[in-house]
Design goal:
single chain; 228 residues; alpha/beta; two-stranded antiparallel ribbon; 10 helices; 6 strands
Length: 228
């Protein structure tokens, strides 16, 4: 297997997403770029900007994001590779880093299930996968918490929300999510995950549907937090 990998690297050399340096024993990012990742430390306290986004809108037990996301940054390149260049290894890396950040938190033992934010079937077919699921698969494996990709559905295919305000996003996304087989969710504390949190409107709308199920509790985690 090592010999096969060496031959594969000769034919298809691997480059760091961050700086384009040729990778040897690393995956996705070189050691130098890994050291430059801008961690938020949001998960260390419930009094953080992510938790505050949802205050007074939906009841969220715990919330946080792993990394700061800025335009033309290392994190933006990492997310871009995951979403638009079919670099699933970038999602696996983000899932592993997120797991390392969460595993020692006292509240993690409360979580019964990981739920990746669903994409509409059309968007998922275009991309070939849901990036939140890629992150969630690694997160689920490392934290030994089951992930469910069947109980949430995005029923409406919306245009890109990137340049809309929170209020416009919220208005355009009403009734685009639904839960299925509520017996699976009933009484569960779920961790809703996604790649990047911007306004929080999409997660808010999806989370509100989850909380309609009897006795559910909601926490939220994303790989990155967009700085406005």
């Amino acid at each position: 297997m090592p010999l096969f990998r060496d031959l594969l690297d000769m034919i298809y050399p691997r480059y760091c997403v961050g700086c384009d340096a040729l990778l040897e024993n690393e995956e996705v990012l070189c050691v130098e770029c890994m050291d430059e990742l801008p961690y938020t430390d949001f998960f260390q306290t419930d009094d953080n900007p992510v938790k505050e986004i949802f205050f007074g809108r939906i009841k969220v037990e715990h919330a946080g994001s792993l990394l700061f996301y800025e335009k033309d940054s290392l994190v933006q390149r990492l997310i871009f590779d995951l979403k638009y260049k079919s670099n699933k290894n970038a999602g696996t890396l983000l899932g592993a880093l997120l797991a390392n950040n969460l595993r020692h938190l006292d509240w993690l033992k409360e979580i019964d299930m990981i739920l990746p934010l669903p994409l509409h079937k059309k968007r998922e077919q275009q991309r070939g996968y849901n990036q939140a699921i890629i992150i969630g698969e690694q997160l689920s494996e490392e934290l030994e918490i089951p992930m469910n990709t069947k109980v949430l559905e995005r029923t409406v295919h919306t245009e890109t929300q990137t340049h809309k305000t929170r209020e416009l996003r919220w208005q355009s996304m009403q009734h685009i999510f639904k839960t299925k087989d509520n017996n699976i969710l009933q009484g569960k504390h779920v961790l809703l995950i996604d790649d990047v949190l911007t306004t929080g409107a999409t997660l808010e709308v999806c989370g509100s549907e989850i909380l309609k199920v009897q006795d559910t509790k909601l926490s939220i985690a994303t790989a990155a937090y967009a700085i406005e």
